[in-house]
Amino acid sequence: MNLAAPVRGDEARHVLVIEDEPQMRSMLTDNLEFEGYRVTAVASGEEALQEVESRHYALLLLDLMLPGMSGFDVCQQLRARGRHVPIVVLTARTQEQDRIRGLDLGADDYVSKPFSVSELLARVRALVRRDDWHSPGSDEFTVGDIVVKPRQRLVLRKGRRVALSAREFELLRYLYVHRNEVVSREQLLRDVWGYSQLSVTRTVDNYVAKLRTHIEPRPHEPRYIITVHGSGYQLLA
Length: 237
Ligand code: CA
Description:
Blueprint: E1 14-18, H1 22-34, E2 38-42, H2 45-54, E3 59-63, H3 71-80, E4 87-91, H4 96-104, E5 109-112, H5 117-128, E6 141-143, E7 146-149, E8 154-157, E9 160-161, H6 166-177, H7 185-193, H8 201-215, E10 225-228, E11 232-235
Parallel strand pairs: 1-2, 1-3, 3-4, 4-5
Antiparallel strand pairs: 6-7, 7-8, 8-9, 10-11
The structure holds calcium ion.
């Protein structure tokens, strides 16, 4: 794939569904198609990796419980290969441990089964719309010694690629668009995560902490993404 080529049209809304249960797979496919997405569905992690290597996807909807390679392995492998494609994880498990592990391995969001279709579609929409090349923050920008190329979803530090997840990437881009302003956690949840429920602001803190480890020379003494006590965060540029 040519990283420099902007993605347009169909590809910008092409979703890959990875789910081994046929009924769930066709339910997901039908609903996404009804919403206007182009959908490819596969039943295993191995097939998913092949698909991602062979074409551009706007988003992956990934079941964690798969025969053979697990959803966790798929996440980890894609991120290790420097693929920034947004990933929404589907889990039948209710344990918070699994969600946290999924997010640590590079997933961007999760939905627990059973889920409401409208909730799932909201999560998908929030991540897919970031592929809009004309939105603010789509031009190359720098933060300290970090160079960000949104069109290629590429982040470089002194010429070396930095592996950000899609969510970390969007967080950085959003903070940059609103640079030198104080941005509240609620605003970040609404605009970067697409959540209307405002009960999980700690999620934002965890992501900011992770983002700092990637872009700050000394993450515990941040120079670029600072905490504004009681208010939120501010990117200094
Ligand atoms: Ca399954």
